[in-house]
Amino acid sequence: MSKKAAAKKPAKAAKAAKPAKSVAKASTTSSKSLLVENRVFKPDAGFVKKARINSMAQYKAMHVESLKNPDKFFGREAKELTWSKPFTKVLDWKCPNAKWFTGGKLNVSENCLDRHLNGPRKTKAALIWEGEPGEKRVYTYQQLHREVCRFANVLKRHKVKKGDRVIIYMPMIPEAAIAMLACTRIGAVHSVIFGGFSAESIKDRVLDSGASIIITADGGYRRGAVVPLKKNVDDALKAKDTPVKTVVVFKRTGQDIHIEEGRDVWWHRELEYVDAKCPAVALDSEADLFILYTSGSTGKPKGILHSTAGYLLHAQMTCKYVFDLRDDDVYWCTADIGWVTGHSYIVYGPLALGATCLMYEGAPNWPENDRFWKIIEEYAVTVFYTAPTAIRAFMKWGDEWLKKHDLSSLRLLGTVGEPINPEAWMWYHHKVGGGKCPIVDTWWQTETGGHMITPIPGAVPTKPGTATLPFFGVDVGIVDDLGNEVGTNEQGKLVIKKPWPSMLRGIWGDKKRYQETYWSDFKGWYFAGDGARRDKDGYIWIIGRIDDVLNVAGHRLGTAEVESALVSHPSVAEAAVVGRPDELKGQGVVCFVTVKEGIKTGRDLSEELKKHVRKVIGPVATPDEVRFAAALPKTRSGKIMRRLLKQIAAGETLKGDTTTLEDINVIAALSAASGED
Ligand code: PRX
Questions:
Q1: What DSSP designation does 134 have?
Q2: How many domains does one find in the chain?
Q3: What contacts 168, CB < 8 A, 6 or more positions away?
Q4: Cα 465 to ligand 1 centre (Å)
Q5: Residue to probe by mutation, ligand 1, list 530, 540, 547, most atoms within 8 Å of CB
Q6: Given 124, 125, 136, 437, which residue has the most CB atoms within 10 angstroms?
Q7: Which residue has the higher pLDDT, 555 or 508?
Q8: % of the chain surpassing 70 pLDDT
Q9: What number is the average pLDDT over the span 213-217?
Q10: DSSP-H helix ranges across 417-503
Q11: Is pTM, for the whole model, over 0.85?
């Protein structure tokens, strides 16, 4: 379908479920089925009728304005936030440093809570929570406000001030969101650590951020088991010279835990000492809001820094335009609060907009494979946002699990985290969305703070497998190494050519790395680390990471991080880690390992190394396979040839130039090697 046609007739797409064109066979490498995807799904007519943006022409006009006249566009949008002091300038840009809404002051928790208390939202459900064992809690905006104020006073009682860093290492319970909002209320900078990270990872983040306080729980539930969160914190704090003075522990599971006198305090006891009055501090637009650690191409995770006003605006705006959230929606994002998706789309975006947000603690297949569908039916969820890896798992478990439940409340579906294969998209569309719900495939990153490439659901026709077109203010380029735009359907590097409000403001404590990682490949442009192509309709197809970062079940993992965990084991001499295609997880982790003199390789060592990586980084990084080898393929200058290892890991015949290889025999040995050697 041409862009023109899309612009003319979006609202007439009454029979949205029918694809406009069929799939044609052609040459592309983007999906397993090697198809160029030509099916086009126009926005559902029922959806279009109520949508805030309901035509391609409207989307295009807004996008053009946002790029040509960002001051006007974002100045207008920003008026929807509640300011303690109005801003005087929209953007101050000296690459790579952006300042948005300078001169203004506001508070994030006030925008997410207080401002909803003066009308009917006061008694509306802000947060609906279900624990994995089945408990339920509902917080109205008024109740959530009260709990946030109380916990902010607990932080103050422990001398947490504006700018201080607070680590949050919690299960998916309302207290995680309460702790985050409490930090923002007093201007403290939170750093949430995903519960699947280990003691070592906590230690690294504590030391890097210089946090003086950790908020945690005794444990959390995951697939019926208890995750020993407090024990991990205790182990992390065995390290000498940590700056942590206080650990606040929420009682979730009631299991026995160690309490360190003088350091550890119980959440519920602390609340007894405080009242529920806590004014929100007016903060500069550019005040640090949070740090979130993510993997890069070195062994050391980066502390991505986000700031106040621009981030909040983008989170709110995307909830408004991409999810088109309304007061009567029940919105559910299945991400964990420990990832950026949980930050922007469980807490800040939906609450700023006054929405009702559902939060679930546990696994999708506990106690049975229909837990998600059961939740959707029970709470009549209307907007559902999940990851392709979860969709592929549901497909595998079979349609009978869905058939047991009424999913007719759904009106919009979303995905995030990795490219969605067209097969999974179609299944999601038909089986979950009943053929009537638009799907927003949202491309973005920890660094971008919010959606960057995504369909606007009432305006942009979708095609299975593409995130479609850029969001407002996002100027995308797909370029070759010299920065020239590549041709239609040619693969290039994805760059963003203009600053946007929720862009990262830096890497915590490392200005140089910030500049080098994101802004030095192409002068003045942000390089995202992803490859992409643009089709004839201008739709953007994300190919995936082109740096040494893996995407395992939607989670980012640096190959260098896993390698450094492996070489910290006494038996390992050298390690190289690559990804291989995986039907469920998108990518699996394959480790090529050489051992020290005299060490016996085999299944035992392979299992031990997998356990070792889990211990060092956390269960998120568990290798799928360890292959032992006498040597790794290297160039004559000593660089490991990852390209070859990737092909070996995927079981492919080797392609490309091997003449630079130092020892050609290594390849034959590696191809034959396995974890049982
Ligand atoms: O490779 C892209 C992939 O996830 C990376 C960002 O990972 P992270 O910072 O952990 O954030 C994940 C949640 C926003 C990107 O560089 N990615 C994310 N969304 C998509 C995607 N790849 C394709 N399509 C998407 N919709």
A1: S
A2: 2
A3: 176, 179, 180, 183, 190, 191, 192, 193, 214, 215, 216
A4: 13
A5: 530
A6: 437
A7: 508
A8: 92
A9: 98
A10: 422-427
A11: yes
